[in-house]
Amino acid sequence: MPVGMPQSDSLESEFAHWLGAEHCLVVNSGTAALHCAAAGVGVRAGDQVILPAHTFVASAMAVLHHNAIPVFVDVDPRTYNIDASQVESKITDKTKVLLPVHMHGLPADMDEILALAKKYDLLVIEDACQAHGATYKGKMAGTIGDFGCFSLNATKNLPGGEGGLANTDNEKLLNRAKLIRTFGEKVGQEQDRFRPYHCYTIGWNYRCQEMPAAFARSQLKRLQRNNVNSQRNGE
Q: Who's near 13: CB < 8 A, 6+ residues apart?
């Protein structure tokens, strides 16, 4: 983040540590997190991104922001997640990314998704905006693909009022995503005392503010307890 945003900086490091991820990018919404992730993995105009037909519109908007094409796959009627058995039939030579959504905190079938990504040399963005703390075969949702994206909207189990998080283990992908967050500028280096205002690509104002970041940090400490309580209520 730009110099002088300690709450946002701390939220990035604390959430990355909590997930077991190498890097985290804090932004002002889950939608922005998805958009930054799409930029991070190099989605370009004309690329195709495969995602479930049942999801919030932001999953597709992140694709459309890059003039890329969302390709919808039907969902499993039991889980409401993307039907992995139908994904391969939608893959073409223009397919760039698989974008599974962990609907209502239930992880998608990531084994099959990752197998297809490896077979066709595709990248994977996990839309984990509703899945803070969910696990898939012992792995945290959002840490299985190339990018994981989370929302801090007030309706989520990790609320910050508003905000979003995108995490990755790949520093190169992270740096691409960072450019989108602040007007295409390279900012946030520890050695930078002043913002340089040098733009290297088209970017947006996706910065998270300090108050929601501080609130999200406080809620992160309670997340595990709150998730257990939600599961108990659901049962």
A: 24
